[in-house]
């Protein structure tokens, strides 16, 4: 596809002509500290998306999940995320070492609003942090520690539009390709390997790793 450059938005002033100004509450809700309700939301959240930027400017978003407590709130300006088992590409961790700018999106199942937290991150092997996670997990090798620059609640419109928590909507996606089918379509596997074979192998590996993480 060829994009018409005359329709590309190239500056903030041009962008702002397309949207109304935000309500003052939307501006004021961003705070540099974690309040009590936000603290409880984060501590209960079993899922967080971690956005990072590498030293070369390449952006990345990685999902992180675990039992409630796999994220610690260290104080009113710092959170720590247990780095649990993954694919060992270390994209997120390498980006944090190179750049340190992160954006977090905490999600609670069934709840429309999410918590956004932007800040400066570093990796820590401090025993007091690694041993402080309350989710019944073994101490991780590394924790992602984030110093808050700003945090605020994000509205529920995206969740409502997507109907992501509505089981009645899930049947529409039942036939969507899963990870196994995508790997087969990318022709990364030996000839004769089927999606079901990959699926079975992935399930076995997931189950093993999840058991190994438990304390």
**Backbone shape:** globular
Count up the helices.
9
The strand count comes to: 7
Largest sheet: 7 strands, antiparallel
- Helix-strand topology string: HHHEEEEHEEHEHHHH
The CATH superfamily of the largest domain is identified as Electron Transport, Fmn-binding Protein, Chain A
Identify the CATH architecture of the largest domain: Roll
**Structural class label:** alpha+beta
Helical residue percent band: 25-40%
> How many discrete domains?
2
CA radius of gyration is 20 Å
Question: Strand portion, in percent?
Answer: 25-35%
- What ranges have pLDDT less than 50 throughout 5 or more consecutive residues? none
**Largest sheet: spatial strand order:** 2-1-5-6-7-4-3
| Separation, N- and C-terminal Cα atoms | 51 Å
CATH class of the largest domain: Mainly Beta
Q: CATH topology of the largest domain, what is it called? A: Pnp Oxidase, Chain A
Provide the residue-averaged pLDDT: 96
Explain this structure to me?
By secondary structure, this protein is of the alpha+beta class. It has two domains: 24-161, Pnp Oxidase, Chain A (Roll); 177-213, no CATH class. Helices cover 31% and strands 25% of the residues. The chain is built from nine helices and seven strands, in the order αααββββαββαβαααα. It has helices at residues 12-16, 24-28, 36-44, 91-98, 127-130, 157-162, 167-170, 179-185, 195-213; strands spanning 47-53, 59-65, 71-75, 78-82, 101-107, 114-124, 143-154. It has a seven-stranded antiparallel sheet, with helices on one face. A hairpin with a 6-residue loop joins strand 5 and strand 6 (114-124). Helix 8 crosses helix 9. The longest helix has 19 residues, at 195-213. The relative contact order is 0.14. The model has no long low-confidence stretch (mean pLDDT 96).
């Amino acid at each position: 596809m060829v994009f018409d450059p005359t329709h590309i938005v190239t500056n903030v002033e041009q962008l702002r002509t397309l949207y109304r100004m935000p309500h003052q509450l939307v501006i004021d809700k961003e705070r540099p500290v974690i309040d009590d309700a936000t603290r409880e939301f984060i501590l209960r959240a079993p899922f967080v998306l971690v956005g990072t930027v590498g030293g070369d400017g390449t952006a990345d978003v990685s999902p992180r999940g675990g039992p409630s407590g796999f994220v610690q709130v260290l104080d009113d300006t710092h959170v720590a995320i247990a780095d649990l088992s993954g694919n060992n590409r270390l994209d997120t961790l390498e980006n944090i070492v190179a750049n340190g700018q992160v954006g977090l999106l905490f999600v609670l199942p069934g709840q429309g609003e999410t918590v956004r937290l932007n800040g400066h991150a570093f990796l820590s092997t401090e025993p007091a942090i690694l041993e402080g996670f309350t989710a019944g997990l073994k101490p991780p090798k590394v924790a992602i520690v984030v110093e808050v620059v700003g945090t605020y609640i994000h509205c529920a419109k995206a969740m409502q539009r997507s109907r992501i928590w509505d089981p009645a909507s899930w049947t529409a996606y039942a036939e969507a390709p899963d990870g196994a089918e995508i790997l087969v379509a990318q022709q990364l596997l030996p000839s004769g390997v089927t999606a079901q074979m990959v699926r079975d192998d992935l399930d076995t590996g997931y189950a093993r790793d999840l058991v190994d993480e438990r304390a």
